[in-house]
Amino acid sequence: MRNVKVIASDLDRTLLRTDKSVSAYTLDVLRRAREKGLKFVAATARAEMGFRILDLSCDAAIVFNGALLLLDGREPERFTIDAATADGIIRTILKLEPSAEIVAETVDISRANFDPKRFWPNMIYEPHDFAAPLPAPVYKILLPLDRFSKVEDLESLLPQGTHSVICEDTFAMILSESASKLNAFKRLCELWDVPLEQTVMFGDDLNDVELMRAAGMSVAVANAGDEAKAAATERCASNDDDGVARWIEENLLS
After folding, report:
1. pLDDT tens digits, 146-166
2. Which residues pair with 167 in a beta bridge?
3. pLDDT for the residue numbered 1
4. Is the CB of residue 123 less than 8 Å from the CB of residue 116?
5. Domains of the chain
């Protein structure tokens, strides 16, 4: 039996199947794990609404790739980019690449200069050409890479206090430097008085790697990218084969 008190998992391409569903088997395993006293944390780049539509039973959720921490019984903790800084970043990007497609996930609603539903079908957004200032702080800025050719220059364009993360080789996320899955997870472990050594993280992509390296154990699904596999201490079956749930059942519930 492994000495694990907290289970954390990425969602898309990790806990979720490729069709974005969660199997009845996975839901049952998570229920039994929590009944046994283990805490389960969803750690995702999804927006809050994209997480909530899954109706997962969790002890906590890290959403917007760490820019928002949701924990039952506590006020949400936010790690945002202020509106003026976000405006400056977006103006810089559009000056460099006028055709760039941008989503600003502000604390009230996402705003985009294109239809983002071709990437995120469930996204609720309002059109915004970014000529007018943003009215609220931003959880993250999304930049699809198929319309932005200067990705190698992106980090150098960002002001102090922000950083970028590439996800699924499809888009870049720009966040506050304090917003990351790892920082939010460390905060949870502090609140729960659980050392990182007693945690396990499941992931598949670059934005999972930092937390995978810090957790006591880390498990890459079979369909993970090379970086996540290199960071993992163990492997499990693919997302479509319920790899996360099978690993939990075999290693934490048997």
Report:
1. 877 766 778 888 999 999 998
2. 171
3. 57
4. yes
5. 6-78+179-253 (3.40.50.1000), 83-176 (3.30.1240.10)
The C-alpha R_g of the chain, in whole angstroms, comes to 18
Inter-residue contact 236 to 244 (CB < 8 Å): yes
Cα dihedral 78/81/82/86 (nearest 10): -150
Strands of 88-176 (E only): list them. Answer: 103-106, 110-112, 125-127, 138-144, 162-167, 171-176
Of 206, 235, 243, nearest to 219 by C-alpha is 235
Residues in the chain: 254
> Any idea which of 130-139, 144-153, 163-172, 208-217 has the lowest mean pLDDT?
144-153
Please state the φ and ψ torsions of residue 144, each to the nearest 5 degrees.
-60, 135
Is the entire prediction scored with pTM above 0.90?
yes
The angle, 0 to 180 degrees and rounded to 10, between the axes of the packed helices 206-214 and 181-192 is 30
- The two tokens of residue 188 are 């949870």
Residue 40 forms beta bridges with which residues?
7
Joined tokens for residue 144: 């699809």
DSSP string spanning 160-195? TTEEEEEETTTEEEEEETT--HHHHHHHHHHHHT--
In sequence order, which residues have a C-beta less than 8 Å from that of residue 132 and are 6 or more positions away?
A: none
Distance CA 79, CA 68 (A): 6
Cα–Cα distances in angstroms (integers) from residue 27 to residues 89, 150, 242, in the given order:
40, 41, 10
Answer whether 248's CB lies under 8 Å from 230's CB. no
Q: Which residues contact 127 (CB under 8 A, 6 or more apart)?
A: 111, 112, 113
